Structure formats: C-alpha cells, structure tokens
Amino acid sequence: MKMSSEDLSSFLAELKDWVSIETPTTSPEKVNELGRLIMSRAEEAGLATEIHTGNTDTRGAALGDHIVLYDPQRRSNEKGILLLSHIDTVHPIGTLAYTLPWKEEGDRIYGPGIADMKAGVLLAFRALARLARTSPLPIRMLIVSDEEIGSPSSRRLIEEEAAKAKYVLVTEPGRPGNGIVSGRKGVGRYFLSCHGRPAHSGRAHAEGRSAIRELAHQILALEAMTDESRGITVNVGLITGGTGANVVAEHASAVVDLRVPDRKTGAEMNARILGLKSVDPDVAFTVEGDLNRPGYVKDQGISDLVLKAESISKAAGQTVFDLSSGGGSDGNFSAAMGVPTLDALGIVGDGAHTLQEYIEVSSIPVRWNLLTELILQG
C-alpha cells in the first residue's frame, strides 16, 4: 500500500506532537499523557480501547498504563495479527529542550525516542486505523509502557495477546539499509549489593571493610564471564557506593546486564551469576535478578515471515535483509511461545538510547508499504 505525500506530511506533523511529550519509563504520568492522546485518536478512528494498569517495576516504582486497540466489530475467536509497540523511552525529561531537540537535517530527523520507538508506534497505529475493517485477519495493537526496563509489568499481557495471534509484528526501529530482525538474544538483569563496615580512611582504616573493594572483585568476576564466541555478554552498567573519599565505604551496589543466545545458555549464566559469593567474609554480599527476556530464535514460522517480507519488498522494487540482534524486545516473549514474530518493522533509524537518535524520512513510505502489505497478505 503506497503512502501519499499528504499522508507523509501528516505523519511527520503527528510524530512531532508525540515526540514533544517526553515519556521516560520512570515518568508514568508523561507516559500516560501520550497514552491518552493515542486513545483519543483511536476513538476518533472508531477503534475500541482498553487500559491495563501498569502497576510497578521489580523495585517497586510506579509504571505507566498499557493500551490495547482493536476494531470492536471484528472481535472473534479467529487468530489474527498482533501489532506490538512501546511508548516508554530511555531519555530523561528535559532532553528535548536541552540536548536532543527535534531537528531536521536532510533526510534525518532527530529527537528523543523518535526511532525507539515513537515513529514505529505511529506507523503501527496508522496501519491499524486504515486496515482494521478490511484486513483478511483481525488486528489488535498492544502498546506497553515498560519495555525499556524489561517489561516486568506488561509481560503477562504481551503473552496473553500473543496467544490470540497467528503472528506478531513488532515495530521496533528498522535497521539502516531497510533491515528487519528475525532473532534476538535473551536478556537478564541483576542487582548487586555490598554492605561493609565504615571507618575513617586515615586514623581507622584497618577497622573498615570496604564495600567498594568487594564490589570491584565482583565486577571483575562478572566481566570475565563474557564469551563473545558463545554469544554471551555480561556488562556492569551502573555502580554506586561510598559517602566520601575519606570514608571506607559501607555500601556499594551495581546493576548488571546479561545477553545470551538461547534458553540453555541463559539457565547456565543465570546460575553462575546468582551463585557469586563474597570474597571478603566481613562484607555482606547479595545478588538478585533473573532472565527477563527469553532468547528469540529464528524458526520455520519466522523464516516464512521473512520470505514474505522479502517478496513484498522485491515487488516494490526494494530490498530488505534480516538479521539477528543482541538487543532484546517484547518480540522475545511471543517468539519464545512459538508464535511467528517479525521484529524491527518500524521506521529506519539509528542512535537509539543516545543523543544522536534519528529516523530516515525516506524510509517512512518504504516501511509503510512493508507493514501494510504484511497485514493485507494475512
């Protein structure tokens, strides 16, 4: 289905409005503000809306709500198509005003969360609004608010919606060169905490037991678990600790990210990380966490979707390529259930999670054609 120049202009104007509402996962009130705007647009298009309370993350922080959209005239037991997206981003409030303003440069438009994944959400929403009553299969769209932290609140809902689907289309950002994703690594998140004994670093240093020193031992042990040849990466991405340079640190903590290629490797690495022990017996050490996304492995159902995408692109005089990614997404959940899942069907862009995040305007009609034809071919 071709996108007209008027549709493209309208798309960009609406996208600017969406990007202007900054929606970090940690600001549920802002996430819900954008959610209300989307639901208002959905109701104007004659779509039904459901709100599912976001509850809290694994550390007890509040989360935004999740939204399901569909045509109320096509509710049935027939398995259909699930469009899967998220509106939370990683950029803190103020990024748009100070460090990553909306900026148009040639074929690129920059902005916080524009690629990951507000442009993809808008693409899916417009496809639903346009095709909900004419598509061969019923369409449902799920928009979640916590993907960027592993979807602790939305996972059950994602799996419930995926179970109703013949296949799942995920609108994470497309890869440069018109790439899509047909496999992803599994993801784990772990929290380390060390509790030592404080002391003055000058006059009573020997009486102290440094939590930071203990944490340093654990960091080295974790980083040593990375094995690129097996597709395993362990990254200590956040650390905190201490109260002053002249104090032996009583507390120190870290947050760890794990990536694995499959369930078996995930179980192995999960056991290794949770099995870490304190090096200094006088420092209390705890490690908590688990795999929060199973591996997304390309199977025959996914291969068939890739072939369909390639055929659609070829018919339009374009090429598309598929790849596996080290990044996780909500597509991991549906793929692990055995529901054919194709990912990275959003607008092509790059720089996600950085201050150089952008989309390619020329890719919008290309990706519109790909997504809508995947829907229309059933």
TrEMBL record:
Cofactor: Zn(2+)
GO molecular function, one term: metal ion binding
Superkingdom of origin: Bacteria
Peptidase M20 dimerisation domain location: 183-272
PROSITE patterns: ARGE_DAPE_CPG2_1, ARGE_DAPE_CPG2_2
Catalytic residue list: D88, E147
UniProtKB keywords: Carboxypeptidase, Hydrolase, Metal-binding, Protease, Zinc
InterPro entries: ArgE/DapE_CS, Bact_exopeptidase_dim_dom, Pept_M20_glutamate_carboxypep, Peptidase_M20, Peptidase_M20_dimer, Peptidase_M20A
Protein name per UniProt: Carboxypeptidase
Gene source species: Gluconobacter kanchanaburiensis NBRC 103587
